[in-house]
């Protein structure tokens, strides 16, 4: 801890944990339209409850940490960069699946969601073939 931290009580933000980063990604996708309502937050919580990264975790605290992480950035597009900190390629792929699932769950994907998912794909290192396969399978899930 440096002198400024000791004297002011301020500290450098800690590196986000994988559960927080997954939550960041889901919140970014959910809020791609500019806001997150209570129903959308409940949906993110429901997604999280099915994932081992959130087992035995307080989702409200994780969501609060995710919001703090997002607020460190000037825009949603800038905040996507933090997803590169996920600890493994498998988690990065899982993150992409979750975000594509959230985007498709609404029934129609708008331009902001499409652009955001494309940015996430690049940051997460998901190749085009895998991304197409994920979206194809999830499209079957939500077909009407």
Tell me the span between the first and last alpha carbons.
56 Å
CATH topology: TerB-like
Main β-sheet, in a few words? none
Gyration radius from CA atoms, angstroms: 16 Å
Q: Can you tell me about this structure?
A:
By secondary structure, the protein is mainly alpha-helical. It has a single domain (16-141), classed as TerB-like (Orthogonal Bundle), CATH 1.10.3680. It has helices at residues 3-8, 18-30, 38-49, 59-71, 76-79, 89-105, 111-124, 128-141. The protein is globular, with a radius of gyration of 16 Å.
Short description:
The chain is built from 8 helices and no strands.
Write the layout of secondary structure elements.
Layout: H1 3-8, H2 18-30, H3 38-49, H4 59-71, H5 76-79, H6 89-105, H7 111-124, H8 128-141
Helix pairs in contact: 2-3, 2-4, 2-6, 6-7, 6-8
What structural keywords apply?
single chain, 144 residues, mainly alpha, TerB-like, 8 helices, 65% helix, 0% strand
């Amino acid at each position: 801890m440096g002198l400024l931290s000791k004297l002011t009580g301020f500290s450098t933000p800690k590196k986000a944990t994988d559960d927080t980063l997954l939550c960041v990604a889901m919140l970014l996708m959910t809020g791609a339209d500019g806001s997150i309502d209570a129903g959308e937050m409940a949906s993110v919580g429901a997604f999280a409850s099915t994932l081992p990264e959130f087992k035995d975790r307080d989702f409200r605290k994780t969501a609060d940490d995710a919001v703090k992480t997002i607020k460190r950035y000037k825009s949603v597009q800038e905040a996507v960069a933090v997803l590169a900190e996920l600890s493994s390629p498998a988690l990065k792929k899982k993150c992409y699946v979750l975000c594509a699932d959230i985007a498709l769950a609404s029934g129609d994907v708008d331009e902001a969601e499409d652009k955001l998912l494309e940015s996430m794909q690049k940051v997460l290192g998901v190749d085009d073939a895998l991304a197409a396969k994920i979206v194809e399978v999830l499209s079957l899930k939500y077909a009407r």
